[in-house]
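Figure-free illustration: sequence to structure, shown twice.
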Amino acid sequence: MNKRWDNMYTRKLQGIVFGLLVSSSAWGQENPSSDNVIELSPIRVIAPETRLERMVGTSNFTTGAIDLYQIQTVQETTALVPNLYVSSSDSRGFGDVISIRGIGNTIFFSSPGVSLYVDDVPSGDVFTYSSELNSGNTMTLHRGGRGSFFGRNGPAGVIEIQSLRPLEAFQSSLSIEAGSFDKRSFRANISGELADSELSHSLSVYHNERDGFLNNAFLNRKTDTREAQGGEWSFFWNPGNDWNVRLKLAAESIDDGSQRLSSLFSPDPFTVGSDLEGETSIDKSQVSIHLMREFDWGVFKSISSLQDWELDPSTVDLDLSPDPISTSTIVQDQKLVTQEFRFESAASESDVQWRAGLFFMDKETDGDSTRVFPAPPFFPVFTEQTISTLDESEMSAFAHVAVTVTETLTLDGGIRIQNTDSSIDRVKTSPVGAVTIVDDTDDTYFAPDAGFQFQLNEDLSLIGRSAISFKPKGFSPFTDNPAIAAFEDEEAWSNEIGLVYISSENDLSLRLTAFDVSIDDFQLERSVPNSTDYIVVNADEVSSQGFEAEIMWQPFPRFQIEAGVGISDVTFDSHTDPFDGSSYNGMHVPYAPEHTIRGSAQYNFENGLFVQGAFRVIGATHYDEQNTALFRQGDYSVFDAQVGFRSERYSIALYGKNLGDEFYYNFINPQVFAGTPGEPETFGARFDAKF
């Protein structure tokens, strides 16, 4: 895929896709004879079907829930489950922090706290996570340490996304959207068998773009435009003998304008005066091979993947002024190779269910960063270039088993054993000379977990879980001092207990959970005083306590309500500034809201009309260790709504996002006294059709 698609190429692609969609309707089986109104499946499943997942904090979300919340990216999943928070700087994942119960990643250099799987393929660092969710995706969010469940370590949780598999009948779908700020997009899919063979395929493509939200008064135009396009093609082969083979190819190209960043002192956060327009250009590609074999004893899976993520470039005006004072230009590439062998028990009502596997990962991150600062005596500017390579290789084994001891008691437990080898090779060049750092480290980690489920009666269960999780040590390339380039492991011990109620009629589900997490050597990023260094430091002790409540209620067949509330207190128990000796004990940990609330309601009329609304409330969030008032985002509430018509073959909807035009910051950067304003009020229309 080319790095930039011009308008002519985009129009050609749209024409080709439309032709495929129209022609495929003639090739496929006969269409349904009537446009019967369909009823949506439950928008959230609080209690999963498998025993391995039933006892832990897992929530499954159907396609209906993703549509209800108008979620099109991973960055929009904040509060989808209680205490899930995504701090997004609106740069397609670069600089994002995704956390659950206060455990997450640092902006640039640490391993993820919340891992991402898409069609059984794990992603690399958070900044490489997929920015688009294709039509038909379902999503499962697993909370708590997931080291014994997945090949890719998930110390705080795992986001798992699955695409729809093709049916025997050839089918296609098309979605077109237009809205505020000249937003326009389309998504298309064709899938089905290929000529009555053992082969089938699924092809999805998308394109979206919009004008900017920020007005650059100095350049006299809106500079934060957005444009992205991509696709994925999967081939499925069923050769017999219980084998299934899948080859998946995916690519994405992003050509965005400036980052949505404005000064915290600006009277209008949606107005800037930068002399540098800024841009973010990203290319992603993925090839994966999936092998599955069913046996009498269970299922064997092999998932091999090769992924490449390239940022070239990201440019930012750090001073946000008309003067050429301070800028940042980053070129970065991450190559990821993974291999997972997974063994699972057969889907049955057996008293013993299990999962085990082996996982290998090799990750290489190459960076070339040029930063310009005002620094006498090199006035007006001081330029430094950092070229670095960070390597990380991992081999791990994981296993988990659940045993039904009695009719009312089930026990489960698991362990993860992981060896990680990390290295750094970097050189920084500046007017004062060149500084090189070369180092490596490796360690072996053990992460056990155990839990129980006790059936109090037909509808009510008591659950409990205890788990050890970890994030490996590593290196920060933005420092000249070898003594502070390395950072230590982060280890967490989490405990939770709760109640799950599911009515016998399945019209009401409720989950209540209390949790306590103790974290040693908590990893966080910060600037080094009186220098241009930016590193990961370790806070000695952090605690996270809180409460979560989730409910799904269907008072009558066409009306559904669901909501989730998370309350957390994530604070430093013992943390001393490594440079000036200040104590931050009792301060709130950055990127951990005091609460998250999310709810929705939808009603489907018999004639196909529907109305639905959703809201989220995010509690006060700090963005620095000192809890400075300027770098604190207070409580805010966002309301969305849709109204439309839905039938078996097509739907049309009118929507509004952030109704009331609530202002808030999605991210605050204390280093440059700037923040990323949340998206303003927008309106639009969306048309979906199936052929």
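We now fold a second protein in the same way, so the two outputs can be compared directly.
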Amino acid sequence: MKVKINKYLQEYILPSLGRGKGVGLSSLCALCLLCVACTDTWNEHYDVTEGGMADQPTLLENIKSDASLANFYRAIVGIGGEATLNSPQQLTVWAPKGMTKEQADSIIAVYQNDKANYESKFGTTQRWSDNRAVKQFFQNHIALYSRSVSSLTDDTIAMMNRKYMHLLGTSQTQGTLDGNPFSEAVISSNGMLYKVDNLQRFFPNVREYLEQQARLDSISELIADYDEYELDEEASVPGEVVDGKTQYLDSVTVLYNPLLMSYGYIQREDSTYSLVAPTNEVWAKYYDEYKNYYVYNPTVLNADSLAEANTKFSIVRGLFFNTSTENKFNRHPEDSLVNTSYFERQQHNPRRNVYYHPFDNGGILSGLESVECSNGRVYIDNKGVIDPRTTFFYRTDLSANFAQYYEVPKNASNEDKMNISQGQYIIYDNDSSFNILKTHNYVEVSSKTPSDQSEIAYKLPSILSGVYYNIYVVTVPNMNSGLPCWFQVKHSERNAKGNFPTAQNFVNPHPVTEGSVENSDVLIRQSNYNRCFVAGTEKVDTILIQSAVQFPYSSVGVDDEMARLSILSFGPSSPSYREAIYTRTLRLSEIILVPFATKEEAEAAADDIDAFNDELLEANKEN
């Protein structure tokens, strides 16, 4: 049976690359409603009052009584299509004369296999119209409304599966449907029956093409895992309200896929998408690499499932491209393409989700097999062309003034020990005091007890495990005091039991030395001066506080805090120094984490915060 299924899918469900004459999408809805009656003589056949169509057999009866359509009828019965063709709804059927018994049995096998798989997965009966055999065979030969043809017919029509086909008439009984000739017209009580020479080839959309290709099973099965049915309240018939919930007399459900809602409507005929589809071999390569980035603390609920899901999301998130002409980001695809994960305000990662010169030699689409689909294209990726640095392996910038990221220590009464305020540091153009070059939002932290250190701790979200991070702090000068702020940094993370151990100090990779900052002679008297950082008085400064640090556990998708960065002011406690040559008031604008795959890469880029993005930009430009 499996052989027959594959034979049908390969021979009759493959896309037809030669398309008929089409029209703009804006005209299709109107075209679908057209029903042309070309002569008065022909119209008489449709006159119910004169005993025209009403006296004729139904579509199903005409198909059953025609020996040349015996195998078509066999397939219809095998997949449960009789009721549709016996109903009073007006339809037009293009029935294949050349269909064989083997082809009919292959279609029936597809129907039964889909139905069984669905029931095994969901525990309920599959909706009939969602079965592949119904969509790709039965509905692919039927259009709504009774359609006559003439020598003037040249239309694009929508089939029941919403596929658009080119209908060309040469007479009242002859023509072609997407190039497939028909030469007989049989009037039925519930529509028109035309007899075509061959099975009508199915032109798949992007998702349907994935489902047909064994070499693309990995991505296709992931998408299918997120299929679910949800109630369509507008289409359902409401009844009484019981315990605050509406009971529906007739409930209508629709197929919903949250994964595709997030990344692209590759299942819709009225959309236009391109998809870079990794072969199973490339998928396995990605998976083996990415799974190391999602090792979770054993205390995390459903850690294994979370790791599996995020590993796969990391593969698919950069594969979808909205190539509609209305999409402003992809109007010039020869220059650059932007995937659907792109967002306009990613100011710190301007090259993320962007691919320059994709069709040029070395570009992401160059050399890939391209397959036309009814709503876009599939590019078969047998190389692994998507660089993870353009999708999920990217620099993270945390705004230090966002309250969801930080917390301050409490006293015995559970009150904040710190004063917290928000501010803006504005940089103006030297040539024009009215021209703002940049605005830095910041948080100001000061202890409520002047002799104490100022302290604030930041939760580090979306950390990848096993990678090497360079970590930076962006400080803002204190214009009120005009004094530098000396500070220390502590890093801690939950252990395998879920607890935060005693924090450990980072070592400053560039120790403070005499003459490097104002009043450094005070600081170098302190035994731990080489573990301090300095927020200067003259500029917004980006300070490297750790190079090539690894986190054993990922925090992607975890609500609980898994790793934190504590920043504490530092300096002598003597009142003679305090607020005279330094300040303990912290002003912080950002926490920046830049990931690298190897320790060597991280250390080489430690002094250049833009090296990560600049390297990627140059690589894209060269392509």
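Summary for the second example: Residues 1-52, 513-529, 616-623 have pLDDT under 50 and may be disordered.
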